[in-house]
Q: What sequence folds into this?
């Protein structure tokens, strides 16, 4: 007896495809910006698709994100555009989604290639080259330092591919310019966590000349730690994301540079890719999106 095949997703009563955006922490300004960009795009293309926007409470609530995907599949959406909180842990639930006939587009944080391969899964990634972006912003920092200077990295979630890539990009720039990386610790993408990590690094390494932060939330936390340690102007800070909250710190020099991956457009790039595939029955393919260094 053959197994029952899951019913293929049906479009909404309006006949328009339903696309769901599943993000990471809604407490992070970067994802609030991403959501706003997606909502604006849908408002301008109201005749083309319906949009559902979801996110989780913090960067590490994997169970909640898995639950959101399952819930959206059961509601019969046509496409899921997801910024996965973890590069490996979401693969199983996304496989269930694809088996139910839902198109999946991966944005922001790339799913782990080996885990996808083991699951027999092909999911297109629409997003930036995080390593190249981090290297470029690291090179701006290197010009302010001299060979042999001590630096430290505040990483994102260590199981997240974009976090791994940004760390690698920072290392590329520092190694090429002869800096000494004395510490590399995770700030879990979060301001308070990074503040504590930065304070610990500064206390243990009094000669540190720079903190390389894998996102701007953590750069904000690091800047507060530098201020509290009485080292303002002595320790350079770089970030990644170009969130609005960082702009005053860029303006007054508390942060040297960041990297803009155009958060307001990231979900839009994914949504547009999904709509094209649904409409044209096109073959899903990876698509690289822009990153730009931002200084004062």
A:
């Amino acid at each position: 007896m053959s197994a029952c095949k899951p019913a293929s997703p049906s479009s909404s009563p309006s006949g328009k495809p339903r696309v769901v955006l599943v993000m990471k922490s809604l407490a992070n300004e970067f994802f609030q910006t991403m959501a706003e960009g997606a909502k604006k795009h849908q408002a301008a293309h109201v005749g083309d698709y319906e949009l559902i926007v979801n996110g989780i409470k913090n960067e590490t609530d994997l169970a909640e994100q898995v639950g959101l995907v399952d819930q959206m599949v059961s509601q019969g959406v046509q496409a899921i555009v997801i910024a996965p909180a973890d590069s490996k842990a979401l693969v199983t639930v996304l496989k269930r989604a694809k088996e139910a006939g839902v198109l999946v587009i991966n944005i922001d944080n790339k799913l782990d290639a080996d885990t996808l391969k083991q699951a027999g899964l092909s999911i297109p990634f629409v997003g930036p080259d995080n390593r190249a972006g981090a290297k470029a912003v690291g090179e701006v920092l290197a010009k302010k330092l001299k060979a042999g200077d001590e630096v430290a990295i505040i990483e994102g979630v260590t199981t997240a591919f974009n976090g791994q890539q940004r760390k690698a990009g920072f290392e590329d720039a520092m190694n090429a310019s002869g800096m000494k990386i004395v510490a590399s610790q995770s700030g879990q993408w979060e301001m308070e966590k990074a503040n504590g990590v930065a304070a610990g690094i500064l206390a243990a390494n009094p000669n540190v000349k720079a903190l390389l932060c894998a996102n701007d939330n953590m750069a904000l936390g690091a800047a507060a730690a530098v201020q509290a340690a009485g080292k303002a102007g002595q320790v350079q800070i770089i970030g990644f994301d170009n969130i609005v909250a960082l702009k005053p710190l860029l303006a007054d020099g508390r942060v040297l540079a960041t990297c803009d991956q155009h958060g307001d457009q990231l979900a839009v790039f994914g949504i547009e890719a999904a709509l094209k595939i649904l409409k044209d029955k096109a073959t899903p393919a990876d698509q690289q999106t822009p990153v730009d260094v931002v200084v004062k």
Q: What stands out?
A: The mean pLDDT is 93. The chain has ten helices and twelve strands.
